[in-house]
Amino acid sequence: MRDHFESRDADAAGRIGRLEIPRADRTVETPALMPVINPNRLTIEPARLAAEFGVEILITNAYIIRETESLREQALDEGLHEMLGFDGAIMTDSGSFQLSEYSDVEVTTAEIIEFQHAIGSDIGTPVDIPTPPDVSREQAESELATTQQALADAEGLDVDEMLLNAPVQGSTYPDLREDAATHAAETDLDVFPIGAVVPLMNSYRYDDMVETVAAAKRGLGADCPVHLFGAGHPMMLALAVALGCDLFDSAAYALYARGGRYLTVAGTQQLDELDYFPCSCPICGERTPADLRNEDDETQTRLLAEHNLHVTFEELRRIKQAIRSGNLLELVERRARGHPAMYDGYRALLDHADQLEAEDPVSKGTFFATSAESARRPEVRRHHDRLNRLSTPDRLLLTESGVPDTDAYDAVWRVKPPFGPFPRALAESYPLTATVPDRTDRAAECAAAEGVRTLVAANPETAFTLTVAAWHPDAKKRIPDRVSVEPLSAIHQSGSAED
């Protein structure tokens, strides 16, 4: 059991948590974004990140510091916090990507972690192998074995209060990711980064990213704080949080700014193509795109980077409020509609509704059914599962419309797409208080029909009658043969039943 991470509020698999970082004597609220700091090229001073953006934790590269003589000497002499001018928590990356892609130098986990400890890092990282997507299974398994050895090496080191990362690798093989996560969770390490997903995000393979993260989450315990390595674009943060990720790192705010790219929650735009800013942050509220284009390159980059951070942190605050309000999935759906690849990711997320349901709170804010995908949300699955617990009378009328009590039936229950049937006593219970469209769609009606099937199967002695309006033929096909289906007009309506 890890006592340095605590979940306070939850929605879907997302949570607002508290990550205690002993060496920094800090507690960081999650979900949290860690701006990536290149010590050789500061776009925004770390002290400003804390003062103006509320940054509680950042990440920098220990390998770059170690291999740059002037930085190495300064870090060893002053300590990392003094060198960067930042008194919050600092995570250091081991430079695994640089070591695997660009360097002939061999650095062991023991060497790099001892260096991270010596310069005052608060969370260190071993030398894992970031296996890219779509490699052969043989390569993925071989490199995963190397990574797991690195975790064992890290676990054996004495690092006092410094927390240690346990990266989860496995390429695009869900079973390897799940096994790797299970192995990592069984160690005494502290934070669990899901690595090598940047190529998936760069190629807009958000559905594959979801499968990768979902597999890793199945292997990790609920007390494991999860870091999604390289994920910091505001467009995808809500999706990643709903999957159960707690920490993110962003180099995009600076890298994109150097290329004249402007981040939004709906994607990335080129500054040269903007006539108006769709944002009211301090940068955009005081300038026009033309003003920003007229700045010198260094100033333009800095101001764009500041905007990129403002919009990213604004989205994180919006996500936290959505978790508190219980409507995180509604926010995910709104973001998904901003880009087809994000919608693929949202649909992939709902493929794991059973996994989300295990962590999703039983009661929360209003359920809004806004699309066909709403029929696949965890709340609908949970209601269907609970239909098995409900007892039914001998003669039961299920109706889409309110009708009065009638002597022809022992009871009258509502049928509400996408949930299906429920007794009046539950009408004011979540999620049956849902706001749903008057014009229900095929998916919602089919889901309601599945609810009817579940109830009927659990109560073989009850005679069921169902009255609905013009449901889609695919939904009607799902109704069991022993249910008498009649049009609404067949039921005498002298008033309306309570909802």
Automatic annotation (TrEMBL):
- Family of the protein in this entry: Belongs to the archaeosine tRNA-ribosyltransferase family.
The record's remark on the cofactor is: Binds 1 zinc ion per subunit.
Q: Which residues of this protein are catalytic?
A: D93 (nucleophile)
Highest taxon of the lineage: Archaea
Biological or metabolic pathway of the protein = tRNA modification; archaeosine-tRNA biosynthesis
- Which cofactor does the UniProt annotation name? Zn(2+)
Specify the protein name.
tRNA-guanine(15) transglycosylase
Which transformation does this protein catalyse, written as a reaction? guanosine(15) in tRNA + 7-cyano-7-carbaguanine = 7-cyano-7-carbaguanosine(15) in tRNA + guanine
Q: Which residues bind Zn(2+)?
A: C279, C281, C284
Record's Gene Ontology CC terms? cytoplasm
- The positions annotated for binding substrate are D128, A196
Question: Which PANTHER family does the protein's record reference?
Answer: QUEUINE TRNA-RIBOSYLTRANSFERASE (PTHR46499)
Alphabetical UniProt keywords: Glycosyltransferase, Metal-binding, Transferase, tRNA processing, Zinc
- Sorted alphabetically, which NCBIfam families does this protein's record hold? arcsn_tRNA_tgt (TIGR00432), tgt_general (TIGR00449)
Q: Name one GO molecular function term.
A: zinc ion binding
Q: Name one GO biological process term.
A: tRNA wobble guanine modification
- Residue ranges of domain tRNA-guanine(15) transglycosylase-like in the record: 13-340
One Pfam assignment: TGT
| Stated role | Exchanges the guanine residue with 7-cyano-7-deazaguanine (preQ0) at position 15 in the dihydrouridine loop (D-loop) of archaeal tRNAs.
